[in-house]
Design goal:
This protein has 1126 residues and is α/β, with parallel strands linked by helices. The chain folds into five domains: 6-217, Endonuclease, Chain A; 230-457, Rossmann fold, CATH 3.40.50; 493-666 and 834-840, no CATH class; 917-1021 and 1108-1125, no CATH class; 1026-1091, no CATH class. The chain is 45% helix and 12% strand. A hairpin with a 6-residue loop joins strand 26 (933-940) and strand 27. Helix 21 runs antiparallel to helix 23 (639-664). The chain is elongated, with a radius of gyration of 37 Å. GO terms for molecular function: ATP binding; hydrolase activity.
Length: 1126
Amino acid sequence: MTTPSEDFRPTFSTNRPQSTVADAINALLAGMRTTLAAPPPVSIATAYFNPAGFGLLADELEQAGQVRLLLGADPDQTRPRIRPLAVGSGRRGERQQIKRVLEGHLRRLEEDRDLIGFTIEADAAARRLVDWLHSGRVEVRRYETGFLHGKAFVVDGSLPGVIAGSSNFTYAGLAVNKELNLGQYDPATVREVREWYEEMWRAAAPFDLSALYESRWLPHSPWEVFLRMLYELYGAEVEQEQRARSSSRLKLTAFQSDGVWRAQRILDRLNGVIVADEVGLGKTFIAGEILHETVIANRQKALVIAPATLRDSTWDPFLRERNLRADVISFEELATGLPTAGRAGAVLQDPDEYALVVVDEAHALRNAATKRAEALRALLTGAVPKRVVLLTATPVNNSLIDLYNLISYFVTNDAAFAESGVPSLRRYFDRAMAMSPDDLSPKHLFDVLDKVAVRRTRRFVRHHYVGDRVAINGVVRHITFPTPKVRRVDYDLDKALPGLFDRLATALGAHVNHSDRIEDGGSAVLLDAPGEVLTLARYVPSRFRRGGDEEQYEQQNAGLLRSALLKRFESSAYAFQRTLDKMIDGHEAFLFALNHGVVLTGDALREWISSDGDDLDDFLSSLNAADDNNVRNAGEFDAAALGAAVRADLFLLVSFRDEVQDHQAGPDPKVDMLVEELAVIAEEAAAEGITPQQTRDKRKTLVFSYYSDTVDHIHMRLLAAVETDPRLACYRDRIATASGPDRSGRAEVIAGFSPRTAGGGVEEDRYDLIITTDVLAEGVNLQQARHIVNYDLPWNPMRLVQRHGRIDRIGSDHGAVFLRCFFPDEQLERLLGLEERLQRKLKQASAATGVGDVLPGFTGHDVNLTETREEIDRLRHEDATLFETGGASALSGEEYRRRLQAELRHSFVRQAVLQLPWGSGSGFVQISSTQPGLIFCARIGDHPRPWFRYVPLGAGLEATVDEQGRPIVVSDTLACLAAADPGGQQVPAALTEDVYRAAFSAWTHARQDILTSWMRNADPANLQQPVPKVMREAADLVRRHGAYLGAQQDDLVSRLQAPYSPRILRAVRDGLAHPGAARQRVDHLAELADRLGLIRQPSPEPLPTITEDDIRLVCWLATVPGQLTC
């Protein structure tokens, strides 16, 4: 023992730049240790404790004698001074308060633990703390019978002392806060403090502080870590659903009720929702529940918009049976009836009377350029906000822009999702399409789609709603679906029209030596071999305009026409001939007009987005009308060259038409194969059916074609076949068609074909075979039937999914349904190859001009050939995956929500997931993977949503880098969740020390990427959307000549000066070209802004500035190939 010095015993301590409370305590402990023969014991009392505070004193505490650490809870400073009567009085009330405060104290300790950070240094510091707690020289207790407000550091031994005051054993208390602490070394005073401490210590309970920190390094199950990721993303929503769920008013199934709850939640937030459940899952019932709340509970008016067929056969009886009052109109009535809305006898009331608008088969509105789309936008625009429910099983048909157009009906602010890291919705979609232009899967759009859409599949319902029951025709039964089975039907296309396909391929440009590279561009008019190759000059007259370039929309028209000719040729010779007839008429009308000094120019295919539908006929006819909008003076063109090209095409078209006509009277090998398949169907039904009704149901068949001309052709041939072929005798007088505009006749056919499921249950069962276009592919319940025949090549697989949904529905009595697909087997690859070439030409039309959409709302190709060819190949192998899955990736997080909800029902799983410390991680083996990776789930301050990042690793467990040497960090939420999903609780943890250490480095990259992304949206300059030139010009016109508008002038300028879709840009460009004085053009722009529903675009609020310290790691998972676990 040495002579004591007074210098190491401070009497006053606070936190200042030159000295801190930690310095004073360290001086005291060091002085005692070096002065005395043995380090004295130390007793500490504190309300709060954290590892950073321990780090300030660690060097001395590790060398001290026995250490006692007494924790306790401060009194609740937030409790009201006036006692709430609901809180017990006396001892009972005090016990309640103590319990509540102790729970808060534990949460605070856990929060301090969670904030230690995820670095090698922080990890080492936390492990040092745990080693100290396990050293055998430390005991920890917590005072739990009352409040502990005192803070003291007491040193026993021959030189007793105490530093007491306001400082907790935390980093802030020992180094940052404005604290006040006094040192006392008078033996009597120190003795009294020790007696107080001993009293509190005896009353305290052992507390395992080390376990609190060790829990971070326990061998966590990868499934529990993944569930914690899901909880961060969906936990609040799932918990709210459990509390807020109410019973269904329409007695829906459990999965339908869940869909209603999700849809209502999205509606409350956005005033709109896309219900994208797979066909046959009852979207009508979900909409019905929402309608019930609107018209019954809220006593508001509602409007239902649907295809005419569904208006009559589905919605009218559905609403009538449930006593729900709502106006129901067709798409056509919407487009034509809006101008007279609110007048006596009109089909529409004043649009502002409607609180809810339901649109069934909403994918019919995916093209923003159609009149029906403009009508819906006008309907939704008004003084009264309207909620809109869009029902569609196939929100993506031709491109991802379909989804954008649907969302834009209710999300009018481009920056609506800025808080979720999406400052511009349009740019978000553009980025997704740029990442994979030929991919129709919306996986790169997960972050937005999960907020706007409800999407469930049959597979989802089967897995998550086992035992769910539904009442069908008054009988309660378990929900089941028939098993889809694909049957391939091969036919020889060349047998019906020998050699014609080769000549048609030549005519469509298959052998023209033009580069297929998109960037090379090229003309849509093929002048290489007039008379052998169709120039299509009649549809691209701008190619011959003096001093002008080809019009974009005309280039697109030409490409779509080539594709349409190919598809109709494959469908039937009759459909091909009918199209040739219309084109011949058009060419003759064009040449007649040209001879009289005018050129018919036409317009873009505004109402026609696909080359596999009947709308083409209307378009071809419209081009022949010589109205003021589609004629030009022939003097503006090289009329001689234009006329020569059109005459060459007319000659070629006539030759094709004549050759096809010569073969019409002969046999049709494709129809002959259909006859054979129907004979097999009839034979199987006779063998399997027990009753006459069962036999009828088992032979009921829908034959689908894209084209009404083909429907007519099949019908004519089958009527003859059933009269002469005894195998088809059961179909005599039981064949009908459904393809034209006759709505009442179509409804009668539907009810006569499937009276039990599509009629009222009292109609006569009149038909066993319907030949139809896709007018019956949407919305009608035809599950009384067992067979579908897809007569044409499935150019768009989503059409097949829609058709399949007519018979694969809840309530089907069939154990399996059969889907036959016709393939021109010998010519299939050549057909697909030619179509792919034509589609590349369509892309050229867009890329060559470099100004985006060629047709308004159309992004350059009809269907995705890469994806289509994969689906076609699976169908050729009779693989039913397309029909099992619905043909699309999940559009929302329903699968993840249900998995989380199911697991949280188990109390032990719930506890493990919610008590997982921040920074916890695990790993698992991905058998199919050859590359390791790390997935991180992080929080930023108190921001409500988590942030996910995936860092793929190289062979040496270093972050992979791109061409510029920058670490690759994947920010797509769905990609992160997919990579992190171990599949179930049975997957064991697999995490090596090397992978664990690699996680620290990978987290550095992930955190920096999160910071960069956040700060990009924190800079107001990055949030300003560029205003297109045409909108700037329109706003400038209103500024210069719109003073007479008064206060409305500034409002109109604000509405115009914003980024809009190409559809609106084109309309405004036309408005600027409106004839008349400047004032008339301003009036026209004002009317246009009202009609298009242009609104002020609020500037997105920048995110608050953050630093790396605001980004905290919640949990992480490592995925490792098998060889890295050895």
